[in-house]
Amino acid sequence: QVQLVESGGGLVQAGGSLRLSCQVSGRAFNGYVMGWFRQAPGKEREFVTSIGWSTGITLYAGSVKGRFTISRDSAQNTVSLQINNLKPEDTAVYYCAARGPGTGSFRYWGQGTQVTISS
Questions:
Q1: What are the backbone dihedrals phi and psi of residue 93, each rounded to the nearest 5 degrees, phi first?
Q2: Which among 113, 119, 114, 112 is positioned nearest to 86, based on CA atoms?
Q3: Which of 12, 30, 61, 95 has a Cα-to-Cα distance from 83 of 20 to 30 A?
Q4: What is the dihedral of CA 65, 54, 3, 45, to 10 degrees?
Q5: Per residue in 2-25, pLDDT tens?
């Protein structure tokens, strides 16, 4: 059974940095795409970034490009999200997700980690 567990959220001042981690387990993830999404208060969940587990190919939402960096460590079975120059509008619950090969949607989700940015 695939499990995704996020950590690293917290309260940070604007301009600061944060590193979120997602521990993945339950199967081999070759061919999977791992993603980060976020949901701000009163808004729908939105795509932030993704990375191919095998290829390392990354994709970013335009709103975070240049400040967010996704990476994966296949030895540690983790997916990380480095966030720099945090802004109040980055306040949200951040979710880690996994999409299997040949599927069009992210089927597996973590429980989320809260990120709050103070101005």
A1: -90, 130
A2: 119
A3: 30
A4: 30
A5: 999 999 999 999 999 999 999 999
d(CA 30, CA 20): 22
CA-CA distance, 101 to 29, in Å (whole number)? Answer: 9
Please, are residues 22 and 111 in contact by the beta-carbon 8 Å criterion?
no
Tokens read off for 110:
């973590």
pLDDT digits 0-9 by tens, 27-82: 889 999 999 999 999 999 999 999 999 999 999 999 999 999 999 999 999 999 99
